[in-house]
Inverse folding.
C-alpha cells in the first residue's frame, strides 16, 4: 500500500473529496472507506479511474453503488456491509484472479477500526488454507466458458460474422487467462492486465485453440478432466 493517495493528481484529489462528502452525509452509516486499483497502487495515470469502496454497518444504508464520471474522471463506487465484505474475502470464486487484488491492496481513506486489514487477513488466510484441487475446480469452470466462446467464435467466423466472432474471442481470451491465473495462483489488476500477463491478448483463434488444448491436458493431469462420463458430471 502507498502512504496516501497523491492529492496533487486529479484521481487522488477526487478520492479524498468523495471520502469527505460520504463521511459528511452518511457519518452514522459508514464504518470504512477505501480506494482500490491504480490509485491504491500509486501508479494511476490520466486514463485511470477511481475505484472507491464504502463499508457500511447495515444493508441498504450509506450511498448507493454507482458507475459514472465525476469532473471527467470515471468513478466506480462499491458499497458493501462489513459482514458481507469479510464473507466475500473468505470465499473462492471462478473470478478470483480478478478479485484478489481488491482484497489485498486497498488504501484506507477512513478506517478507524482497521476493517480493510481484517479483510486482507481473511483473504490471505483463505489462500493459505486453500487446496490445489479448489483452484483446479474453479479453473475448469473458466475453461468451459473459454472453450464454448472459442467454439462459437470459430463457427461465426466460418459464417463470415466476424464482428460477433471478435466479441466471443475476447471472452475466450479472458477466461483462458483466468484459467492460467487459477492454475498458477496468480491474480491480476484487471481484465486487460490478465490477458496481457498471460500472453493471450493477441492470440488468434488457432493459438487460443492450442492454449485451451494445453489447459485441458493440465486440468486432466490435476484430476479435473474437462470431459467425462455422465456420472462424472455430478462429482
Amino acid at each position: 500500500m502507498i502512504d496516501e493517495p497523491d492529492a496533487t493528481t486529479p484521481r487522488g484529489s477526487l478520492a479524498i473529496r468523495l471520502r469527505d462528502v460520504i463521511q459528511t452525509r452518511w457519518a452514522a452509516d459508514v464504518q470504512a472507506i477505501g480506494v482500490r486499483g491504480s490509485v491504491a497502487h500509486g501508479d494511476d495515470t490520466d486514463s485511470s479511474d477511481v475505484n472507491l469502496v464504502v463499508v457500511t454497518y447495515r444493508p441498504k444504508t450509506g450511498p448507493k453503488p454507482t458507475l459514472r464520471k465525476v469532473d471527467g474522471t470515471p468513478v466506480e463506487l462499491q458499497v458493501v456491509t462489513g459482514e458481507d465484505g469479510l464473507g466475500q474475502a473468505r470465499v473462492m470464486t471462478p473470478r478470483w484472479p480478478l478479485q484478489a487484488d481488491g482484497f489485498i491492496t486497498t488504501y484506507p481513506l477512513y478506517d478507524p477500526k482497521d476493517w480493510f486489514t481484517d479483510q486482507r487477513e481473511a483473504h490471505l488466510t483463505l489462500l493459505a488454507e486453500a487446496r490445489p484441487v479448489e483452484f483446479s475446480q474453479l479453473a475448469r469452470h473458466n475453461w468451459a466458458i473459454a472453450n464454448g466462446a472459442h467454439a462459437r467464435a470459430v463457427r461465426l467466423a466460418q459464417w463470415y460474422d466476424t464482428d460477433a466472432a471478435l466479441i466471443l474471442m475476447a471472452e475466450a481470451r479472458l477466461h483462458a487467462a483466468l484459467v492460467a491465473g487459477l492454475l498458477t495462483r496468480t491474480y491480476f489488476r484487471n481484465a486487460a492486465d490478465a490477458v496481457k500477463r498471460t500472453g493471450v491478448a493477441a492470440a488468434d483463434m488457432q493459438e487460443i485453440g492450442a492454449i485451451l488444448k494445453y489447459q485441458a491436458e493440465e486440468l486432466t493431469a490435476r484430476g479435473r478432466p474437462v470431459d467425462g462420463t455422465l456420472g462424472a458430471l455430478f462429482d
Summary: The CA atoms of residues 164 and 193 lie 23 Å apart. DSSP finds nine helices and five strands in the chain.
